[in-house]
Amino acid sequence: MNNAKQPTEKAEPLTEQETISDMPSPDESGDTSAVQPTEKKRFLNYKLLTVILIAAILIILPVTTLIKAVGMPDGTFSETENRYLADFPELNMDSILTEDFMEGFEDYFSDRFILREDWINLKNNVDRLLGKTEIKDIFTADGRMMEAWKGWDEKSVNENLDAMSAFAESHVGKNQKVYLMLSPNAQEIYKETLPPFCGAADQKAFIDMCGKYSEYVTPVGIYNILSAERDKYIFYRTDHHWTSLGAFFAYTEAGKIMGFEPYGIDYFNIEHASDDFRGTLYSQTLDGGIKPDIIDFYIPSDGSQKLKMTVFDGEESTEYNSLYFREYLDKKDKYSSFLGLNVPMLTIESELSEDADKGSLLIFRDSYANSLIPFLVNHYSKITVLDLRYINTKFKDLGIDTNSYSAVLFAYNTITFSEDTNIRKLTYLDGLDD
């Protein structure tokens, strides 16, 4: 076979005549009108496509959105975004004059916009491609999402601390101690992964300030243990809560301050209840690039845990023989498998030996406490859990005597404590204003 390269002709640049040889030529008189119909047709087609596109945006999308809204009545819950969608606003003359109707309708329409989740995902993906590391007040770095916190309102926080201090002072002399446990969130523990000049506030300084505020409140410091164990799986990647392991480390520190002997991790059987949890931060960003989370249940290995939990939802009470609502493991809001949905009051009664029982504990909490309480039930035969966001009735009307408990614990994460204005209701709810 002859493998010798054959000589090739050198390519010559196209001449101007050759570049236009395929174009329609004018007739002999030089008339170019033969070309014009084709160009005019192209222009008209372009205008037609533009009109169709504008019509799709201005007419078709809104119409299909309204059709979709018919099948999404008020009270519709979005599993993906983990929230209730805006209801149709009240229509009357006052709401029109004050523009409340239009503002409400904008929220209603936006929540039901056709392909809403796809649009949100597209926008957030574009933002990420442009290099944004903070989307909807959520930082994404090192394979995790972190709820952003840029600081606190000093006046508002002091009002919370004043109410808590007044409550604690009123219980002095009743052989009862009041404790405050504030947890940092992932933003603080992994702050070195945040972009420079991102405005993240110093949570340690905030926690220290709150802990020193009142002589009647004993701080339960958990910052150092969480910081020391930062390389372990102590915060979810797609949710704003700590994991069961993070709550376990907080529990071990609480025992040192609150006077109970915490069990070691070997005391518990760790059940991997779910490995496809996508939490609240995912719901806001729809960032599928972050690995889903694992939910673990820590259950005493000796099978000794016997308890009854009474859930009061504001209207009626229901009894359960477990702290875990496993039906939520099949839903989007898997974190609600810990103690169920947020309600005004829970009462947990446990059968404990005399040596193990430290009496009764009253907890004021946010949802961080939900995965902490399964550890505390091993030391207190009665725990009452109150969520002040859902209580506007005086404690005595709920059958609660706050003086009857052995100890009181305020268990919150930093962000909630700095923003929740319901804490200042304490003095009214406990009858201190009477």
Layout: helices, strands, pairs:
Blueprint: H1 16-19, H2 36-70, E1 77-78, E2 83-84, H3 93-97, H4 100-111, H5 116-129, E3 138-141, E4 144-147, H6 154-170, E5 177-183, H7 186-189, H8 203-211, E6 217-219, H9 223-228, H10 244-258, E7 268-277, H11 280-285, E8 293-300, E9 307-312, E10 317-320, E11 345-350, E12 360-365, H12 373-376, E13 382-386, E14 407-413, H13 414-419, H14 426-429
Parallel strand pairs: 5-6, 5-14, 12-13, 12-14
Antiparallel strand pairs: 1-2, 3-4, 7-8, 9-10, 9-11, 11-13
Molecular structure report:
With about 425 residues, the chain is α/β, with parallel strands linked by helices. Helix content is about 30%, strand content about 15%. The chain folds into 2 domains: about 40-115, no CATH class; about 150-430, no CATH class. It has helices spanning about 15-20, 35-70, 95, 100-110, 115-130, 155-170, 185-190, 205-210, 225-230, 245-260, 280-285, 375, 415-420, 425-430; strands spanning about 75-80, 85, 140, 145, 175-185, 215-220, 270-275, 295-300, 305-310, 315-320, 345-350, 360-365, 380-385, 405-415. The strands form 4 sheets. An 8-stranded mixed β-sheet has the order 6-5-14-12-13-11-9-10, with helices on both faces. Strands 1-2 form a two-stranded antiparallel sheet. The relative contact order is 0.10. The model is unreliable at about 1-25 (pLDDT under 50).
